[in-house]
């Protein structure tokens, strides 16, 4: 049989090699019929096709009986290694679905943990349940720091307010957050809330305002206040409100803890409030990341 070069191994080659292995293990074409579930003539055709494909005779068959040629013995050994490698590959891939390993780096704005819906909390829980070997790295940051981390690859995903979208990021809505104006029980206004009938009257009281980026409707609402202090995040605003010297806006879910304990009260809630969209952001054109995709999937489940 004329020798030839095998340029590549195809799916058809692998199927033929499996037939060859079954024949070699059975010791004859007829004995391989039950193992393969095909007729002896079909087995003979497959063997001839494989020998033509490889350019060598793999076995002797005839009146003298069945026997592997020297080349056949080598091909059988090589095919065993190949088929074992394929099976190992299949098992490793399937194992990844049960033993997911890698990192998820997520940046979140402060104080989302008090959200009653707990979308992010539940999604992280479900993710870790599927992959207990996943390393989760969570950082609490400002919106600007989160966007920077996403753009330079330091973060995989971020949760932040939708203010002015960056062209290099993709955003999807997570939930709507309501913010109201609050004073503390130590503030003179606490027991006079019912006497305040307009936003104009609030200019008589000192206020704390955020020095981080806000949406336009939030900016317009903050501008109605008599700003005398500022804070870099919502926790800082809460600190200053609780001094009893300032009024300020806080997310409703974050202030709820103090409201229920009688330590804070909303001021003119029908008028002094605004809404912000909090989004999940990822970098456009990012590399495929199975763990990130799984986390985003879990977020959709919880939404």
From TrEMBL:
A GO term, aspect molecular function: DNA-binding transcription factor activity
InterPro entries the UniProt entry points to = LysR_HTH_N, LysR_subst-bd, WH-like_DNA-bd_sf, WH_DNA-bd_sf
Q: Name one Pfam family in it.
A: LysR_substrate
The residues covered by the HTH lysR-type domain are 13-69
Q: What CDD domains does the record tag this protein with?
A: PBP2_LTTR_substrate
Q: Which UniProt keywords apply?
A: DNA-binding, Transcription, Transcription regulation
What is the top-level taxon of the source organism? Bacteria
From the record, what ranges are coiled-coil?
none
The similarity comment for this entry is: Belongs to the LysR transcriptional regulatory family.
List the protein's name: HTH lysR-type domain-containing protein
Organism of this sequence: Acinetobacter brisouii CIP 110357
């Amino acid at each position: 049989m004329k020798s030839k070069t095998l340029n590549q191994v195809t799916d058809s080659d692998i199927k033929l090699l499996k037939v060859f292995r079954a024949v070699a293990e059975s010791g004859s074409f007829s004995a391989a019929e039950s193992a393969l579930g095909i007729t002896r003539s079909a087995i003979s055709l497959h063997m001839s096709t494989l020998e033509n494909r490889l350019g060598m005779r793999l076995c002797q068959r005839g009146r003298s009986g069945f026997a592997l040629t020297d080349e056949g013995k080598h091909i059988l050994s090589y095919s065993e290694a190949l088929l074992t490698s394929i099976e190992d590959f299949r098992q490793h891939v399937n194992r990844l679905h049960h033993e997911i390993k890698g990192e998820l780096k997520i940046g979140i704005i402060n104080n989302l943990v008090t959200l009653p819906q707990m979308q992010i909390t539940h999604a992280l829980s479900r993710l870790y349940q599927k992959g207990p070997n996943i390393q989760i790295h969570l950082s609490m940051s400002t919106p600007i720091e989160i966007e920077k981390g996403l753009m330079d690859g330091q973060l995989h995903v971020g949760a932040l307010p939708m203010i002015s979208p960056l062209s290099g990021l993709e955003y999807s809505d997570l939930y709507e957050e309501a913010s109201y104006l609050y004073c503390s029980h130590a503030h003179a206004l606490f027991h006079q809330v019912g006497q305040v009938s307009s936003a104009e009257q609030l200019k008589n009281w000192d206020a704390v305002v955020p020095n981080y980026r806000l949406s336009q409707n939030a900016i317009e609402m903050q501008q109605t206040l008599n700003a005398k202090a500022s804070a870099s995040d919502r926790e800082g605003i809460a600190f200053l409100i609780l001094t009893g010297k300032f009024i300020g806006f806080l997310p409703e879910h974050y202030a709820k803890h103090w409201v229920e304990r009688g330590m804070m009260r909303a001021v003119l809630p029908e008028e002094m409030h605004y809404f912000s969209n909090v989004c999940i952001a990822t970098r456009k054109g990012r590399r495929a990341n199975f763990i990130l995709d799984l986390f985003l999937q879990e977020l959709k489940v919880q939404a």
